[in-house]
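# nightly structure sweep
# worker-07 picked up a monomer target from the shared queue
# config: single-sequence mode, recycle default, output format = structure tokens
# input follows
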Amino acid sequence: MEWSGIVEKLIRVPRLCIVKDQLTPLDVTNCIMRRENYLIALFNMNIVAFRLPLPFFNRYTVFTKTLEWSMDLVISSCVFKSSILSPDVLHPDKKEAVAARLRWRFRALGVLSLIFCPFVLAFLLLYLFFRYGEEIKNRPSNTLGSRQWSPLAKWKFREFNELPHAFEARMTGSEDVAEHYVTQFQSHVLTILARLGSFVLGSIVAVLIVAAIVDDDILTTSHIFHKSLLWYLGMFGTGLALLRGLIPKEGEVVNPKLNLDAVVTHTHYKPDNWVGEEGTWKVLAEFCELYEYKALVFLRELASILLAPLILIFSLGSYQVPRDIVDFFQNATTNVEGIGPMCSCADFDSGFAKHGSAAWGASRGGGCTLKSQHGKMEKSFVNFVAHNPGYRPSAQGQVILKNLHRHIQESPALALRSIDTLTASRGSSLNSTVFTDLSFTEPDRVRSSILDSPEASSLFETLSGGDLQILHQRYHESMLSSGTNTA
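# output follows
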């Protein structure tokens, strides 16, 4: 049974909430995601910066799983009580006291991390050795030369009211399309050097293999610079695998915009400065800060054993950061009947007036300090509606859906091309008649209109997920090009 079906059965339970006649799917999700929604908003609004407190290096940001666990531990223990926001956090007169408590806990955890860092470092080295040693030996290019999403990227991609299983399902397959986007940017010089090195090492490996066939003892009895030929065979084989990973496949069509859009169907993340610049090295560099080499992630995790205490003590434990965190909780909290205090960014019924953006379809935007970045709130809402058929959007939510519908009607060719291009690999496309009579007044009407088209029914799940996000992205880009005020 899907999660939406479980929620439908749950909200039908009589007297589940004593102060509300019936809970909604949004209420249930907000209860589960209360703490995570605040953390998602913290990262989205850049409230916390994990900068190195070192001269000449303070512009560099370091965020690892160690720092993620540390921040989560401090905020959970200081701001929340039994998964409910502590009343002290919302009390204006206790702001400095809560900030001081946060500051003390960040610093205390930093000192403890510094004391135990030798033991943690030894444990992490052993863990990495036993976890990845066999993979590095047998598949070095897949382990060291491959990439993965960084911990910071996952928090930037996570959406409000998106449960863990839904997020993992959305990210499934994202690394394949992300790799395809990155590999289109190849340095010709690097490719030539990789081909040359691959040819040289391949020749040496071939000679050693032939020598081993002729005399099976030669690899262990013969030595060069006090190393056996078997050692050289292993090292050259590893180097050969790494170099071959740098050589692009022949015959690939270079289309950075299309490939980045394919990534966006999974990540739902495309900053405004990437629009129209998908094929530039600047955008690639920013993209690779989120999609990093695994080897770099491993090294950063090791380095964070020493750097994390400094960041906890001097950056997160500074005078201003804890105050900013408390300000955020006070300004981004709303009290919903039957639910209690929750993150107003996750309030899809009435939160768009405070955190929304007209450039993403909301009726009006909030102040610059509270507006969600990169259309996070609107994207989260569209994703939530797509995955929760029983949810009835409020008037503020219907404005976004109607604006998206209007964009499809006014630019059907652009909308359909966005879908057709991404679904061409599946051998089907959507016909313009699918969108002719779409009304976003009620979600059921949306679904019935789409499902009336037999050719679109099998693609509805995709349309309501990644492809619908692409349509939303196109709407935003049209707002940017027309000069619409994003406030």
